[in-house]
Amino acid sequence: NQHGQGDFIDLCLLDTAVGALSNVALQYLTDGRLPERSGNRHVVGAPIDLFDTATEPIYLAMATDRLFADLCRAIERPDLIDDERFTAPSGRTRHRDALKEELERTLRERPAAEWLARMQHLPAGGVRTVDQALQAPEVLARDMVRHIPEDDHELRVLGTPFKFADTELAEFRPPPRLGQHTDEVLSSVLGLASGEIEQLPRDGVVV
Predict the structure, then answer these.
(1) Are 112 and 58 in contact (CB under 8 A)?
(2) 13, 57, 61, 111: least surrounded by Cβ within 10 Å?
(3) CA distance 153 to 88
């Protein structure tokens, strides 16, 4: 900021989820209509969906005129740019089924990897399984899989998406074993003496 003072940030997961409703929420707030289920499609944009290739599906999000034209050139289908059904965003949305059929007719001719190599400059991506996502080089480079030594083996856990330039995050530690810190908590939090702590299991208060 310009005044040199900090501020309190109130960020709630619920607010974030509601904000992500975007077009769906605005449609309801404008005319009261509830949207139909759209699956992988976008409710008001096309082509935004999963598309079959010769191998596995890929996800494309090319709703603007420029992106759609770039997509058509990338898959060597410039004829679709001038197709009167697809020349405007509203037309592509209205004729989304026909557009998907045209695109998949071409995309099914080659494997996903080849198409994605041609679309590196476009919002397109493969559909990953969980293991593929967690082994991806870019995920590992961002420390999103952390390795924690524990006794004679190693735990793998998710890293944190929060990265700070000057603030060091707390050290990743293994989850505590059952009862591992019971005595410590009883002593430091409740102020019990060692004799009292030893008596509690005998009385069946703690296990």
Answers:
(1) yes
(2) 13
(3) 58
